[in-house]
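Re-run with default settings, no changes from the original entry. Doing this only to confirm the output is reproducible before filing.
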Amino acid sequence: MAIEIRLPPPQPKQELFFDARERYVCYGGARGGGKSWCVQHKAVFMAARYKGIRILILRRTLVELRENHIRPMRRMLRGVAEYKATDKTFEFPNGSLIVFGYCDNEGDVDQYQGQEYDVIFLDEATHFTEYQYATLTAALRGANDFPKRMYLTCNPGGPGHAWVKRLFIDRDFRAGERPEDYVFIPARVTDNLVLMKKDPEYVRRLDNLPHGLREAWRDGNWDVFVGQYFTEWNREQHVVEAFQPPAWWRWYITLDYGLDMLAALLIGVDDTGEAYVVGEVYEGRDLGEGHDGLIVSEAAAAVKELAAGHAVTAYLAPPDLWNARQETGKSVADIFAESGIYLTKTSNDRVDGWMAVKEWLKVRPCEDGAMRPRLRFFPNCRNIIRCLPLLQYDERRANDVKNEPHEITHAPDALRGFCVYWTANGYEPAQPARVKLIDKLQPKRRKRT
């Protein structure tokens, strides 16, 4: 049976969302971009076009699901598809299904294991954890010719901010993730011409939001969000174009180590006390499949390679690396020393350390009169650049950083060790004086007669 449904024409950014053919399509970034409209109309369009397709629409809570999707879609599909309240499902005359679900708790997603859907809509994706997202991707399958796609809509912030940003904004892919499968379609309130016409004051309300919420919801800024610990972070100010540092800079390597991750940073300090993170090592099991972690000797070799060509003043490490292992009686610091790397113990006070990082990141007047932070980063140090702005406040301990998601904490922990340590400026050595040979040392010339 053919189904005829008249849908209003999409706006330009929404049309890009409708036309996208990648396996994972992410839409949004700012509030008011028409995300819910996209989800509902794209789902209905696909249900009408593909006979027998199975579609799942998910929100984090039942209340959000009911208010944002079920009620408006019941009005939209009255007389077209039958809604079964018990199953929270729309059944179309052509056999297509639109199923509604929610994952209020981490374990709620397990109910979808073993199920098959051709298309999944993850609405407000940053409200879902990475575990929930990964579990749902396994349900995206079926022995048929229907397209297999996951559509995500989102704003910056929330428990899923880190994984959404990694995949769709930073495009930092891991084993099994193909770049060609992912696309991000940014949309702001100004792209929603219907909303701008019907509620022109909405933009003004976004302008009046507090810092963090304003930049995330109004501008779609993924580096600023509510609960962000390092609100000092500004990519334009803290990430600089790479250049060749002089050899006389004072060099430090600071590290955080475990089998879950070796995070090591090479940092140079110039003669004014300004520091640059110019290199990094980032490897461990927390990176997922294909990453087994480095044993101590391998970690020491990686750090030695990072230091190559630099006269390192100190290798900074947290105190726990001096704990002797029961099976060998040796500590990590001992094994590093056997490799020729002698570690220096830094403070393990987390709050003092994070406060020190804030001071290094703060923009302040410099000797040349310019305003800039004391600490900046080369673009190749992509993991510390990625992880640092993602850190959030720990609700249980004031002024500390939340330890989840754990993967993003390693590089900042290494940086904390440097920032809390007493460091010295680099010193440009004086140029050797050029001695002019006096005449008596010159070979004498005979006078012509």
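Confidence is low (pLDDT under 50) at residues 437-442. The longest strand covers residues 250-258.
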